[in-house]
Design brief:
single chain; 397 residues; alpha/beta; Rossmann fold; Coagulation Factor XIII, Chain A, domain 1; 2 domains; five-stranded mixed β-sheet; 34% strand; globular
Length: 397
Amino acid sequence: MKNILEVKHLTKEFLIGGAQEKYLALRDVLSNPFKKFKQPPLVKFKALDDVSFDVASGDSVGIIGRNGAGKSTLLKILSRITPPTTGKVITRGRIASLLEVGTGFHMELTGRENIYMNGSILGMRKKEIDRHFDAIVDFSGVEKFLDTPLKRYSSGMQLRLAFAVAAHLEPEILIIDEVLAVGDAEFQKKCLGKMDEVSINDGRTVLFVSHHMGTIAQLCKKVLLLEKGVVLKYADNAMEGIDQYLKLNRNNPSYVNDGTEHEVIGVKRISVTNTEGEALSDFTNKDEIVVDFELEYYQIPQNTSLYVSILNQYKMPVFSEEQIIEANRMRLKIFPDFLVQGNYSISVILHLIPSETYFTAEDICPFHITDIDSKMIVYNNFNHNYGNVFGKAKWIS
């Protein structure tokens, strides 16, 4: 039996650099003849480089990798949104893609009209769409707004409807980027259950991009790991691919923000250190760990908060802390005998309560904790089943 999806020597190149268009004032026009401009040369950038893999019918494949690895570019090529520079993709079935909120929707049409339009794009006949219509509406929970133009929907409502259409109209291949982060927790759980159902029960193929290793481990049989546009590993066992992904950042305990600075407030550097201020990636369970933040601002906006989560090796939050910003240096202390042996990283959100986000960073500053207490080692054999922290609790009568 032939594979439902074959990717052969896929390469995608972009041209970067060159002169940037800008607004010209009168003084610029008058002075330009007297200036000598040297435009930066155009450079070819390979977002994907000779990528090849096959997917069998009914497989659930997690596509993982760090930011800039080429995951989104790959999904856009598979979804025929953008063509490859070289190579080819062979598909043997209808594809439904959910890459971002509103993909494939028309904002001026109603929810009802968009369901039928999407079904037609997928090659469904009206009778087929009619058969699934009630299930789509029920799953999405937008029945009251079904005849309202989509532009009146919130992003969460658009997401629910888009996912319901993609999952219920029976495509042979379902491609999903990590748009589920937009939905509420209950709907995310509902979506993951549906994805599991279409893969296991219906035998359809699912390609899923996520930074959430717990979700990848739960949902996917196989893992495709990308790094700088190259296939680093295509593992038949999902945990093999996840383990290699977790090792990529192991020795980088500091994060330096070299991106565009926010005009109000931003993060300059984040480091995981010991009490002496030395950036490290390895600790024992008896060490005190400090997460050190350096901020940049002219004036601290009122009610600006720094939200920090410690993630376990599956990128699931172990615990979180939040603090109103009062200075350009913030330090979060993690006490000894709190985190058990294992691999961890951090996620950060700098935001104005409750609305505006100034900065986010996910899965940065990885560090490892080794247990040196013989009594605790017994418990750590069951670490993955019983948690990541030693809680403060006692039995009472």
